[in-house]
Write a structure and sequence with these properties.
Radius of gyration: 17 Å
Strand content: 5-15%
Structural class: alpha/beta
Number of strands: 5
Helix content: 40-55%
Distance between the termini: 36 Å
Shape: globular
Number of domains: 1
Length: 232
C-alpha cells in the first residue's frame, strides 16, 4: 500500500515512527477537537465551464454521494483531503475539482464510485466536481499513514438520511505523498501548504525516513526545493 520503509534497522524505524507520530498527533487532536461537522444540503448546480475550487460543502456532498454508492466509510487521499483537517483551507490548496476516494472496508469497490460519480458521470456533468475511485496501493506516504487518518463525521441532514464518515489523509502525510508524486501541481500544493503554515518542516523531514526507500531521496530533494522557494 505504498508504505514500505525499506531495509533500515527495525529499532531505528520504530523510533522514527514514534517521533513522527507524536509530532503529527498534535495537529490530529486539534482537528478532532472541532467535533463532527453537520453536513449542509448539496450546493446548487453550477454553471458549466467555471474555473473554481471544491469548497467544504461541495466536499461533503461528494463524501455523502460516495458513501451512498458503496454503503461504506470513505477514505480521501487527494488534495481535497486537506478539508478534513482544515475546513477553511486556503483556496490555493483547493484548485482540483477531483476528490480521490476509496471505500475503507472494501477498497476493491472503488470502481463503483468511479462509475457513479467519477469523471464523465452524470454527477460530474451536474456539479463540475467529481470523485475518481482509486486504490489504496496508489498512496505513497510515510509508514503507518492508515493510523493517522483524520476521521470526519457528517451528521444526517434529513430524517431518512444517514451519517457519512470520511477518513482523510493527515496533512503531513498528504504533503509528503504530493512530494513523492512530484508533478507540478503536486509540488505547488506542497509549497502552498508549507507557506501557509499548515505543515511543520521538521515533521516533514522526519516523515521522509518513513517513506518507501525508493522515494526518499527524491522526496527529500523536492522538500528542500520548495523550502527554498517558500523563503524567497
Amino acid at each position: 500500500m505504498g508504505s514500505g520503509v525499506g531495509d533500515a534497522p527495525i529499532s531505528r524505524r520504530q523510533g522514527d515512527l514514534g517521533r513522527y507520530a507524536a509530532r503529527t498527533r498534535v495537529a490530529t487532536d486539534l482537528a478532532l477537537c472541532r467535533g463532527p461537522f453537520r453536513a449542509r444540503a448539496p450546493p446548487p448546480r453550477p454553471t458549466r465551464g467555471r474555473t473554481s475550487t471544491v469548497k467544504r460543502e461541495e466536499f461533503e456532498h461528494v463524501i455523502r454521494a460516495a458513501a451512498d454508492v458503496v454503503d461504506d466509510e470513505i477514505v480521501v487521499a487527494g488534495s481535497q483531503a486537506v478539508l478534513g483537517q482544515f475546513p477553511d483551507a486556503p483556496a490555493s490548496l483547493l484548485r482540483s475539482l477531483e476528490v480521490d476516494v476509496f471505500p475503507k472496508h472494501a477498497p476493491e469497490r472503488a470502481a463503483e464510485i468511479d462509475g457513479a460519480i467519477g469523471d464523465g458521470s452524470r454527477f460530474h456533468e451536474a456539479f463540475d466536481y467529481y470523485a475518481p475511485g482509486i486504490g489504496p496501493e496508489t498512496i505513497v506516504a510515510p509508514a503507518g499513514w492508515e493510523g493517522r487518518l483524520i476521521r470526519l463525521e457528517l451528521l444526517a441532514v434529513a430524517r431518512k438520511s444517514r451519517t457519512a464518515v470520511a477518513w482523510c489523509l493527515e496533512v503531513h502525510d498528504l504533503v509528503l505523498a504530493k512530494l513523492a508524486a512530484g508533478r507540478p501541481h503536486d509540488l505547488g500544493f506542497a509549497q502552498d501548504a508549507l507557506a501557509e503554515g499548515l505543515v511543520n518542516l521538521e515533521r516533514l523531514r522526519l516523515g521522509i525516513d518513513l517513506m518507501p526507500s525508493r522515494h526518499r531521496e527524491r522526496t527529500r530533494t523536492r522538500l528542500e526545493g520548495i523550502r527554498r522557494k517558500a523563503r524567497s
